[in-house]
Design goal:
Order of helices and strands: HHHHHHHHHH
Number of domains: 2
Structural class: mainly alpha
Number of strands: 0
Largest sheet: none
Number of helices: 10
Length: 215
């Protein structure tokens, strides 16, 4: 690089038009972003929390609520800076495996990353391939949860297979979750197990179908 240090670009800071975003013509775009962000956040959160042992479902629910609130606030704040949403990353799996249980781990990570805001030319020299081994380790950590799948029922194993397969094929955790939820609900219907389908699952499956059209 020609230089090591470079000041961050704040030219897009507060370049927002809230009134324009309230127009009906923008609604499809907003809905699309919401669906993608919603499924990305929920699927990633559930995947990460599955690595933690909770004493009760209530305790797990508290963690889910906190994570989604942080994700929502991060998305809103990011919009004011004109950057992509600051969301939950699956790479947090490495922190969880090393004992992280609170937001202090994320806060510490953020502090460590602050100096690199001014070292972007140096960071850009690092090839994308250099991060591949790290992502493989993260994937391996996430894959360990397969043992919790109930393979005694076809719809469980088939939906799980689709979920796992579609994530790398579509380069998206969201896509994997959408395929898994949709296929699971559809197979329950085809197998006549309608009593096992909750109203919430039906609503989520319908939203997933909308995601297919948007994407």
């Amino acid at each position: 690089p020609q230089s090591i240090f470079e000041a961050p670009d704040f030219s897009l800071f507060m370049q927002i038009d809230i009134l324009a975003a309230l127009k009906l013509s923008v609604l499809p775009a907003i809905l699309s972003l919401f669906i993608v962000n919603f499924f990305d956040a929920t699927s990633t959160t559930m995947g990460l929390l599955s690595q933690i042992h909770f004493e009760s479902q209530h305790e797990k629910g508290v963690y889910i609520k906190r994570a989604l609130i942080a994700d929502s606030v991060g998305g809103v704040v990011s919009s004011f800076f004109g950057i992509s949403p600051s969301v939950i990353f699956v790479e947090s799996s490495t922190a969880i495996q090393n004992g992280a249980r609170t937001g202090l781990a994320s806060f510490t990570t953020a502090l460590i990353c602050i100096p690199f805001i001014f070292l972007s030319p140096l960071i850009n020299v690092i090839p994308a391939a250099a991060t591949s081994p790290i992502l493989m380790v993260v994937g391996l950590l996430m894959l360990s949860n397969i043992r919790r799948i109930d393979f005694s029922e076809f719809e469980n194993s088939a939906a799980s297979l689709l979920t796992i397969a579609m994530m790398p094929l579509c380069y998206s955790i969201t896509a994997g979750a959408v395929f898994g939820i949709t296929s699971y609900t559809l197979m329950k219907l085809l197998l006549g197990k309608t009593k096992e389908i909750s109203p919430v699952l039906v609503v989520i499956a319908i939203i997933c179908c909308g995601w297919f059209f948007i994407e």
